[in-house]
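User: Can you model how methionine sulfoxide sits in this protein?
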Amino acid sequence: MDKNETYKTLLAQVRAMVKDESDPIANMANVAALIQEAFHFWWTGFYRVIGNQLVLGPFQGPVACTRIGFGKGVCGTAWKDKKTIVVEDVEQFPGHIACSSESRSEIVIPLYKGEEVVGVLDIDSERLATFDAIDKEWLEQIAEVVADKIPLRGMEVGH
Ligand code: SME
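Assistant: Here's the modeled complex, given as structure tokens:
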């Protein structure tokens, strides 16, 4: 199936899945599973902004780094720069954090509450140059649906 068609179906599934659920972690967990079912990427998951770090959230795939600093790696850079980052070859990205030696390319999409980044969606592929402008466009829409369900004060328990 054409990638656009797969994403179109996926976005509809994501919208339907989160519609009646207010808990952000539950939604992230199911959205990670839906993305994996559709594309079988190496690793798909969320990191949440907690204080000055990204902390691992729901994911599908192998064990991953639990904490990433502001501006560190691809995830921390997407957070700092407030923009999606597409990396065709992780070895060419200065400061890339290798949670898995299998990972070859990556896309990281910030989750926004207004101007503020409250988390990121991170997807890794074991193949080079997996992600392009089409993935970016659709995954940004998926990230927005998830972010819309996050409470205004983000996901900082006790804050
Ligand atoms: N490679 C990421 C770290 C997260 S994992 O790959 C799951 C990065 O450089 O931010």
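A couple of observations from the model: The chain has one domain: 3-148. The helical segments are 3-18, 24-39, 73-81, 133-148.
User: Helpful, thanks.
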